[in-house]
Amino acid sequence: MAKIDLSIAIEMATCSDPGRVRTNNEDSVLANPQLGLAVLADGMGGYNAGEVASSMATAVLGSELEHAFGVHPPHQISEDGKTWAHAALIDRVTKTNAAIHHAASSNAQYAGMGTTLVIVQFFDNRMAVAHIGDSRLYRLRNGELSRVTRDHSLLQEQLDSGLITPEQARFSQNKNLVTRAMGVDTHVDTELAEHAVLPGDVYLLCSDGLNDMVEDDEIALTLSSLSANLPLCAQQLVDMANDNGGRDNVSVILAKIKQPFPAPEMTSGWKERVQSWFS
Amino acid sequence: MAKLILSMDNLVLKEIPLNKERTTLGRKASNDIQIDNLAISGEHAVIVTILNDSFLEDLNSTNGTFVNGQQIKKHFLQNNDVVELGKYRLKYVNEAALQASQADFEKTMVLRPDMMRKAAEQAAGKPADLAPPIAAAVPKPAPAPAAADAVPLGAIQVLNGSNAGKTMELVKSLTTLGKPGVQVAVIARRPHGYFLTHVEGAKFPSINGTQIDTQAHELKDHDVIELAGVKMEFFLKR
């Protein structure tokens, strides 16, 4: 199968910084524009265990998914009617969760480590989004910023139940409590969704170190002003979080859709195969 | 753990830890916090505590419940809030909030399902009747530490062309200059000053006749920026 290369259609940039207070960076980012894959993880756990968990998540998923989409293209429909992107993401996240959990339970210094996760896999003018915990995916379309993922956090549940208002949420002492994480248990509940993608869209994956320090309208202003220069845009977002106190590690991955990226026609594969029989 | 400090006429009577999910206040002996005074209703108010957050709710008391001088129906308690019930005052002290504000921003933690269930049950026990909290009781957002006040407000004035003489205040955190697709630069407003950075285009802008590179350049009072043939002066308003 022809190797996927989406880098003509999708530009990506990353930036990750320990912030102004912490000495270590427990966030981990991976961007593979050829494959159209972005993975961001925000680790937690004592000593350097958070770093271990988040870097395991990005490294293992980066290579596992590259391998998975080398076997089948992401848009291929599998037996259960779902895309291979959907099936592979769920499957590889489950396996990676088991690997992190195993490392945590077999090494005393990694006990209790875990990580949040947000993955975007672009394919066929769409994207599959998997997330666990409070790392987010935002989308800027026609100058309007919207949040694609919904946090798995106590705060979000309180908001959903109407116990507190978004205004009050800003002062909550429960901001740091996630209700789902990778690696803390043998099994993990991954939220997965597919969304249509349009040329001109700008996507932002970020750790809570960004959205806790920078208001959404400032994020929107930055994405719309600087999308022409993605690395500068990523750096600017991190600078803003740090200028506002930088109390946590801050990481961003940006993906800009420059042109449509439909899945390659299946027929060409058949034609080539038929031709190869006769040659 | 959060606690309440009960006092009357500036005399501390006792400290009450908020270690239960429901702490009731009233004149009757059945309350967790009993205040034997005729101004207090039998069942006056309740405090619902979920992990580090506490919510105060008035139970339709005759004389009402006041927080920091304002009558409330339901209130999300903040550190140092003062609850007034008749002549009695209850000060809410949340040490978790104090600790969090002291540099060590709390680290992300996973909420285990057993804790989660408890929180969910608490939430379910308090349904939508708590819906409209009093907007006025919500404290003002803490001013962003990015207090750009440290640096005086900057502005640019166009020096040539059809827009000559026009001034623009640099109020926003980012102001873009130039033509998208041709040449664009951005001025970022940061706590320690204003910075010009090239965004796109083959040509880079210049400051006082010297072309800048890809790095951000701090703007000084009366610097002249040239971009796509337009000259403009940066200045600080005092």
Explain what you see:
The complex is a heterodimer of chains A (279) and B (238). By secondary structure, chain A is α+β, with helices and mostly antiparallel strands. Chain A has one domain: PPM-type phosphatase domain (Phosphatase 2c, domain 1). Chain A is 35% helix and 25% strand. Chain A is built from eight helices and twelve strands. In chain A, strands 2, 3, 4, 5, 6 and 10 form a six-stranded antiparallel β-sheet that branches. In chain A, α1 runs antiparallel to α2 and α6 runs antiparallel to α7. The model of chain A has no long low-confidence stretch (mean pLDDT 91). Chain B has 238 residues and is mainly beta. In chain B, 8% of the residues lie in helices and 43% in strands. Chain B contains two helices and 22 strands. In chain B, the strands form four sheets. A six-stranded antiparallel β-sheet of chain B has the order 2-1-11-10-7-8. In chain B, strands 14-13-22-21-18-19 form a six-stranded antiparallel β-sheet, with no helix packed on it. A five-stranded mixed β-sheet of chain B has the order 4-3-5-6-9, with no helix packed on it. The radius of gyration of chain B is 28 Å and the shape is elongated. The two termini of chain B are 47 Å apart. The chains are: A alpha+beta (279), B mainly beta (238). At the A-B interface, α3, β9, α6 and α7 of A face α1, β12, α2, β16 and β17 of B. β9 of chain A pairs parallel with β12 of chain B, so a sheet runs across the interface.
Which secondary structure elements does this structure contain, and how are they paired or packed?
The complex is a heterodimer of chains A (279) and B (238).
Chain A: E1 10-17, E2 27-32, E3 37-44, H1 49-71, H2 84-106, E4 114-115, E5 117-123, E6 126-132, E7 136-141, E8 144-147, H3 154-160, H4 166-169, E9 177-178, E10 191-196, E11 202-206, H5 208-211, H6 216-226, H7 230-243, E12 250-257, H8 266-278
Antiparallel strand pairs in A: 1-12, 2-3, 3-4, 3-5, 5-6, 6-10, 7-8, 7-11, 11-12
Helix pairs in contact in A: 1-2, 6-7
Chain B: E1 2-8, E2 11-17, E3 22-26, E4 33-34, E5 45-50, E6 53-58, E7 65-67, E8 70-72, E9 74-76, E10 82-85, E11 88-94, H1 95-101, E12 109-110, H2 113-125, E13 154-158, E14 167-169, E15 174-179, E16 183-190, E17 193-200, E18 206-207, E19 210-211, E20 217-218, E21 224-227, E22 230-236
Parallel strand pairs in B: 3-4
Antiparallel strand pairs in B: 1-2, 1-11, 3-5, 5-6, 6-9, 7-8, 7-10, 10-11, 13-14, 13-22, 15-16, 16-17, 17-20, 18-19, 18-21, 21-22
